[in-house]
Structures are given as C-alpha cells and as structure tokens.
C-alpha cells in the first residue's frame, strides 16, 4: 500500500517559514545562539562590543600565563575555561574587583573561592586557601587568600575563571589590552 504525502507539504513549508521568521531571517544554524540546559555557556567574549571593566591583576610580579583560555566547541567540550597564572605556593592573591564572596570550599580536592562582582561578572580562584565567608564583601586589591595545591592546576599556578552572566569568558579581557599576534612574512617574494 502506498501513502500519498502531498497534503503535508504546505504544513512543512509553513513550519520552515515560521522557523526562519523566528530566527530573524538567519538560515545558518551556526549563528543561532545556544541555550544550554545548565545555563552555563562558553565564549571568548559573549559581548564582543562590550566595554569590560578594568580589573586589578590579582598577583604580585609578572603576568605569566602558563595555560591560556581555550573556549570549548560546546558546553561539555574540551577546553580551558579560564587561565592558569604562574605563582608560588603561599603567594597572596588579591580581589581583582570589588564584590561579594559567593562560595568558599573544596570541590573535587581543590580549595576555591568564588566572588560575584558588579555587572554580572563572577570570578573563581583555585587552588586558593581563604578565610573569607560567603556574603563577605571584598574591595579591589584586598587579599582574598593564598595559593595552595590541588585540583587540575599545576603546582606553582593559580587558576582564574571568569563568567559574565553565566557565560565563561577569557579573563584577560578584563586586565587591559591583550597582546595581538603578529604575522610575519613567510616567503621571499619571488
């Protein structure tokens, strides 16, 4: 027995038109912003034209990033949702901006501290030993703890992760202009 599907064709066409209208005329699915179930997404900069606040560097000494931010392809994909910064164990870490301590504790063998900042920014430091309590307010530049050991960060480093409205961003966006890559000529021109 053969079924005739012609009556469904207008319904399918109408559904496609409604989908395109809902997407604002965008036909490329890669342009559709993802809305993950957890509400936590990842991006180098979810608001590329935004003017981010200027934060205070949280460690004394040179800004030596040992592991840069690497945005994953999707919410659960491989990547590095922050930066690892060279630091001695026991070094003091300061708050990069004013805020309120949201969490202090140990998660999967790593001590960490999370601070909520104005404008929807949230910073997390690990491994970090701290005496601050959730609800405490901190000022920019105020000591929030000391570098410890544990978790995935290599010894003598501290991991700094930043979220903006729940979306992970490259923390270096908040610490001044990022160094730009310089492309050098590869050929002699002949």
Order of helices and strands: HEEEEEEEEEEEE
For the record, give the distance between the C-alpha atoms at the N and C termini, rounded to a whole number.
70 Å
Give the overall shape, derived from the CA principal axes.
Answer: globular
- Count of DSSP-assigned helices: 1
- Please tell me the overall pLDDT: 78
- Return Rg in Å: 23 Å
Number of strands: 12
Q: How much of the sequence is in beta strands?
A: 25-35%
Q: Low-confidence runs (pLDDT<50, min 5 residues)? A: 10-43
Helix percentage range: under 10%
Name the structural class. Answer: mainly beta
Largest sheet: 9 strands, mixed
Task: Tell me what the structure shows.
The protein is mostly beta strands and 190 residues long. The protein is 7% helix and 29% strand. The protein is built from 1 helix and 12 strands. Strands 1, 2, 3, 5, 6, 7, 9, 11 and 12 form a 9-stranded mixed β-sheet that branches. A 3-stranded antiparallel β-sheet has the order 4-10-8, with no helix packed on it. A hairpin with a 3-residue loop joins strand 6 and strand 7 (121-126). The model is unreliable at 10-43 (pLDDT under 50).
């Amino acid at each position: 027995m053969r079924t005739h599907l012609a009556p469904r064709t207008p319904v399918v066409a109408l559904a496609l038109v409604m989908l395109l209208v809902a997407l604002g005329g965008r036909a490329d699915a890669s342009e559709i912003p993802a809305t993950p179930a957890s509400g936590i997404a990842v991006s180098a900069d979810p608001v590329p034209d935004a003017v981010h606040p200027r934060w205070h560097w949280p460690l004394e000494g040179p800004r030596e990033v040992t592991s840069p931010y690497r945005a994953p392809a999707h919410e659960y994909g491989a990547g590095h949702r922050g930066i690892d910064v060279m630091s001695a164990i026991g070094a003091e870490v300061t708050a990069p901006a004013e805020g309120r301590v949201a969490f202090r504790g140990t998660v999967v063998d790593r001590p960490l501290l999370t601070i909520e900042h104005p404008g929807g920014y949230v910073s997390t430091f690990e491994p970090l030993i701290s005496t601050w309590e959730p609800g405490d307010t901190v000022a920019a530049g105020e000591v929030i703890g000391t570098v410890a050991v544990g978790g995935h960060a290599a010894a003598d480093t501290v991991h700094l992760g930043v979220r903006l409205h729940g979306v992970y961003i490259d923390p270096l966006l908040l610490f001044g202009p990022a160094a730009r890559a310089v492309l050098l000529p590869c050929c002699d021109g002949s």
